[in-house]
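ok here's DJ-1/PfpI family protein:
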Amino acid sequence: MTHVVLVLTPGVHLLDLAGPAQVFSTAAGLGRPYRLSYVGERERIDSAQGLPVQAQTEWPGDLGPDDLLVVPGWRCPRGMLPPPFSQQTLARLAAHHAAGGTVAGVCSGAQALGEAGLLDGRRCTTHHELQDELARRFPRAKVVRDVLFTADDRVITSAGIASGIDLSLHLLAVRHGPAQAAQVARSMVVYTRRNGDEPQASAVLRYRSHLDDTVHRVQDLIDARFTEPLTLDHLAAAAGVSARTLTRVFTRATGGLTPLRYQQTLRLERAEHLIAHGTTTETAAHQVGFTDPRMLRRLRSRTPG
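and the structure:
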């Protein structure tokens, strides 16, 4: 069971909080082992939008490396002010990361991570109105602009508001594969669109920075069923275009990948994850949809690293 703890402060933005909460609660409803807790330094948390939120003041006592701490953003009417967290709360964030856990900040939540010492030397981002101040306040941080989120050594930050959903879907894709993230996204009636500018991001992220709705629909289908045989004609019919048109727009949107190559990339990435966790090449090949393990070996031999 993975524990997701949302760390709340007065003035919290509701969507910064609700986006990640909805993603992980939806995943739990689909059978994934997630439970959510909401902690704060007071029981009543008045949100920026006026709706009060109930929090628990006692932290869960059984947090481990697989668990996740998320700091939603709060209203910053005059730019970034010192985060309204005590040193004890900031120390908890730092200690969880030091113990191997993942810590995430949505919008101005990145500042809490900075005050906890987690942004030094790492890529990070925040809402575009706060990026200059984040860079000024934490000069050792590598502030990345014009991206939805960043991930660097189990420190995850997002641009704010709705991008907390993208951050959370990314974490699902990393932990459970793109099909799970796509299933949750479809349940929430959102695309599994992610930032495509991160050099270490997964294939689902690298090829999702375009704005072509037809290609996004096809990618949603491939993400959900990448282990199955998917013909070009089937994908084109699902998108309501010809096979020739799909190949043309898909290649243009993804920077050169055909739908088949995109599917192979997802299979290869998932297979590498399985192999890294002790699965044999033959078993991994079959689990990701290759009928012949030699195909997986050929793809691995062509991929640097």
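+1. DSSP finds 13 helices and ten strands in the chain.
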